[in-house]
Amino acid sequence: MSWTVPEQIKLTMVHQMEIRQEPGLTRSSTRESWCLVRRPDHGELRAVLKCGRCGREGVFVIQDLATTKRLRRWPMARSLASAVVLIGIVAALWIIGFTDGDITLQVLAFPASLLFLPVGIYLLASPSSNIGVRPPESVYFKTDTVREGLSYVTRNSRRGEGLACSGNAKPAA
Ligand SMILES: [Zn+2]
To answer: What mean pLDDT, rounded, does the chain reach?
Structure first.
């Protein structure tokens, strides 16, 4: 998905209400509001989405296809170059290590493969997460964490406003 620029975008306002940490389990309760928008043909589109919990109006700024492609060019080039370097290092360790019988390079080849190959493959699969949308600023509220039995509960210290209100944008499925 991240090789292409999505035409349809899902905008979401996420209001996080509380986090409850139980032994071995973390529960987070949120209230989400979302809508679908189509990328503008030219220029930028300002889309407003209201949070269903606190009523805050989040402003998303969505760029057209040409601008988004331009924004993605440099991060994509950088990701692909990094992937080539990482995979190249691993390939060199294996090839030189085992054709020359160099025990040091052979020993390094295994951890290098485990560390670098997943990162390299990830960078090749999604070279840029930029979809040309600027989400609204996140708002954070004053919170307290209290112990309730075996759980720790984090919630707003005053009036049940919750922990945070933020917006995000994703390619529409
Ligand atoms: Zn909110």
So the answer is: 93
